[in-house]
Design a protein that fits this description.
Blueprint (H helix, E strand, L loop, with lengths): L1 E6 L5 H9 L2 E7 L5 E6 H7 L3 H5 L2 E5 L2 E12 L6 E8 L5 E11 L5 H4 L4 E4 L3 E7 L7 E4 L8 E3 L10 E2 L8 E6 L2 H13 L18 H8 L13
Parallel strand pairs: 1-4, 2-6, 7-10
Antiparallel strand pairs: 1-3, 2-3, 4-5, 5-6, 7-9, 8-13, 9-12, 11-13
Length: 236
């Protein structure tokens, strides 16, 4: 991607405030030489920041009639306005080694056994991954094929196959999940209910109240013969 920047001569809080009021964004570009303060058109930058490639690929910045290769390193947004307050770029060349987050593009899950056969849900836990490589080898994204997913399976960072020359950055022994396959909630409830009702020997499920036993006194009363009625009148 290509964008145009202009040299910024005035610095300071007041100058930056006036720059923003005029529809510009103050910024800086550093690395491979002396840092230079720049300004960028706000509307063009705001729309560029919505594009995935602007965050994870080498950009061509036109500054003072020269084109430089840069990477977006940081930007600041207003707390509640849709306004970019400041932006940082890093110059790169063929020998610059960078560490940056790259988006993950998932594909093929609709053809996997987990989805087609078992009607499972595929959760994309991670949307990007940190990589290390030369700036010239930086991929715009890394594709992850999910067509072989099965029920109950999870994919981890170690399962990602990066392009040649690109290393996935793992912090220590951490190997976080990037994709998880789960059963639909309705099916989980049906399975749980079936397991609870299928107790061995016809016994009631755990937690079910047993049928109350008949009282012994009531059984004895039901078997005893009826007593004759007493005459409460005395014969004269």
């Amino acid at each position: 991607m290509k964008f145009v920047a202009f040299e910024r001569t005035q610095q300071g809080t007041g100058a930056s405030r006036r720059l923003r009021s005029s529809g510009k964004v103050p910024g800086i570009v550093y690395g491979a030489g002396d840092p230079r303060t720049i300004e960028v058109d706000h509307n063009a930058l705001f729309h560029a920041l919505k594009k995935e490639a602007f965050h994870s690929s080498v950009l061509e910045m036109e500054l003072a009639g020269q084109t430089q290769k840069v990477l977006l390193r940081d930007f600041q947004m207003h707390p509640w306005k849709q306004q970019v307050l400041h932006i940082d770029f890093q110059r790169v060349d063929a020998n610059t080694r960078v560490r940056i987050k790259v988006p993950l593009h998932y594909s093929g899950e609709e053809n996997s056994p987990a989805v087609k056969t078992d009607k499972c849900l595929v959760n994309h836990v991670a949307t990007d991954v940190e990589v290390e490589c030369l700036a010239t080898q930086l991929p715009e994204f890394i594709g992850v094929d999910l067509s072989a997913l099965v029920k109950g399976q999870s994919l981890h960072v170690s399962d990602i196959v990066p392009p040649a020359g690109v290393r996935i950055v793992r912090h220590g022994k951490l190997n976080p999940v990037i994709v998880a396959v789960t059963m639909p909630k309705v099916e989980e409830e049906e399975v749980a209910a079936a397991e609870a009702g299928a107790a061995p020997g016809g016994a009631p499920a755990a937690g079910a109240a047993p049928a109350p036993a008949a009282a012994p006194a009531a059984k004895a009363a039901a078997k005893a013969p009826a007593a004759p009625a007493k005459d409460d009148k005395k014969k004269k």
